[in-house]
């Protein structure tokens, strides 16, 4: 009796499971990199605007909490020592923008005091942090049709 040999199957690389693994790795590294971002401010209730711009690169964040306490990059400070601490933070990049991250319940005068103190040490660029609120689409009304 003669035993037949089966024809050998060619080896194939299945690409679908490989795509799944690569996609999983991509998502994993994206999520883990988001967790590594460094936040230099405390959470406050920011004023809401529909025209706020995207976050900009910053080195110094001045946080003013609702009760009026001040922080520079999460380090507590007061109005008397704000100038010296801010000058220390901006020693390497004096042209940087100072982000003012003030709670919406903070007295307007307090924000102006902080900005004035920063201007005294040479800060010329400020940005006010806001929270973006989605704006409903504009409805454009056409002219009425005449019969």
What features would you highlight for this structure?
alpha/beta; single chain; 7 strands; two-stranded parallel sheet; 147 residues; 5-stranded mixed β-sheet; Nucleotidyltransferase, domain 5
Structure write-up:
- This protein is of the alpha/beta class.
- The chain has a domain at 48-132: 2-Layer Sandwich (Nucleotidyltransferase, domain 5).
- Helices cover 31% and strands 16% of the residues.
- It has three helices and seven strands.
- It has a five-stranded mixed sheet with strand order 4-3-2-5-6, covered by helices on one side.
- Helix 2 (79-89) crosses helix 3.
- The protein is elongated.
- The termini are far apart.
In short:
The protein has helices at 15-35, 79-89, 108-120, and strands spanning 48-49, 60-64, 70-72, 75-77, 98-102, 126-128, 131-132. The protein is an alpha/beta fold and 147 residues long.
Structural class: alpha/beta
CATH domain topology of the domain at 48-132:
Nucleotidyltransferase, domain 5
Strand count: 7
Strand order of the largest sheet: 4-3-2-5-6
Spatial extent as radius of gyration: 28 Å
Q: Can you give the mean pLDDT?
A: 77
CATH top level class name of the domain at 48-132: Alpha Beta
Alpha carbon gap, first and last residue: 96 Å
CATH architecture descriptor of the domain at 48-132: 2-Layer Sandwich
Beta-sheet strand percentage? 15-25%
The coarse silhouette is elongated
- How do the helices and strands follow one another from N- to C-terminus? HEEEEHEHEE
Q: Count up the helices.
A: 3
Name the helicity range: 25-40%
């Amino acid at each position: 009796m003669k035993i037949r040999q089966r024809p050998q199957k060619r080896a194939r690389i299945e690409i679908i499971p490989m795509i799944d693994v690569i996609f999983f790795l991509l998502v994993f590294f994206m999520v883990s990199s988001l967790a590594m971002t460094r936040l230099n401010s405390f959470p406050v209730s920011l004023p809401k605007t529909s025209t706020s711009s995207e976050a900009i690169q910053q080195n110094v964040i001045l946080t003013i909490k609702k009760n009026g306490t001040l922080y520079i990059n999460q380090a507590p400070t007061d109005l008397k020592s704000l100038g010296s601490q801010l000058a220390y933070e901006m020693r390497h990049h004096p042209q940087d923008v100072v982000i003012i991250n003030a709670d919406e319940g903070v007295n307007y005068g307090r924000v102006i005091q902080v900005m004035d103190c920063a201007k005294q040490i040479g800060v010329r660029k400020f940005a006010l942090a806001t929270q973006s609120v989605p704006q409903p689409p504009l409805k454009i009304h056409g002219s009425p049709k005449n019969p």
